[in-house]
Amino acid sequence: MNVNRLDDKDYKIQTLKLALFLGELLIKNGAETYRVEDSVLRICKSRGYTHINCFTTPTVIILSDDKFDGLCFMKTIDIRGINLAKLSLLNSFSRDFVNKVDPDMNEEIEELHRIDKLKGYSSKVIYISTGLASALFAAMIGGNEINIFILTIFTSMLSAYIYDQIMKYSNIIIFSHLIASIVITSSGFILHNLELIHSPTTLIVGSIMPLLPGVAFVKSLRDLISGNLVSGTARFFEVIMILIAIASGVALVLGIGGV
């Protein structure tokens, strides 16, 4: 049976900070809004705090108490991505925490920091996987010649590298997609003009596939369906802006090239 220390304000503050940190990590690693709020509220309710409100968007999470004790915590999220391995660990952490009788909050927060610092696949593995996936998709739509396959791999790897470098300095996801799409389209037409490929279409389409916000689109729909209108609308608008950025990058090169 869980031990509730409802009158211990310091313990309550620790619990809310733990829940806030968990919510932050879930958002940063690609969890849906309803899943974030559910996990955060379960953490609080497991300690007996049933009057907690949680407001979550893709860029901010706010925790507050209905009671008049003045407790309110907010955390802004600047960087978001998708890391299913960390999401699995965070979900396991949430389930384990709820079942604990009297956990040490400092140790639990340290565990969250440990999960946050876990390193995923190396950049080389990610770039190679991105290139292979792009080349295979290009092959599916007709680019099954060996030269197109190989050049699509390198074009996609180059765009992924440039995308990551831009994100390190600007964190502007729209700008990163715009530049990456320009690089891909320019590479396709340069290779075509050098007569290394007979048509740039399959190379361009295949290389652009990793840039498309398919997961973000699905998450926006799930948020809207679950009733999180603010988060769902924000995610959907972000998807539209990314698609516009990709289309603009391609159209810019086509326009300059006179195609």
Describe the structure.
A hairpin with a 2-residue loop joins strand 1 (52-57) and strand 2 (60-65). The mean pLDDT is 89. The chain contains 10 helices and 3 strands, in the order H-H-E-E-E-H-H-H-H-H-H-H-H. With 259 residues, it is mainly α. The termini are far apart. The protein folds into 2 domains: 9-117, no CATH class; 123-257, no CATH class. The protein has a 3-stranded antiparallel sheet. Helix 6 (146-169) packs across helix 8 (201-208), helix 7 (173-193) packs antiparallel against helix 8 and helix 9 (214-225) packs antiparallel against helix 10 (229-257). It has helices at residues 9-28, 33-46, 84-99, 105-117, 123-140, 146-169, 173-193, 201-208, 214-225, 229-257, and strands at 52-57, 60-65, 72-76.
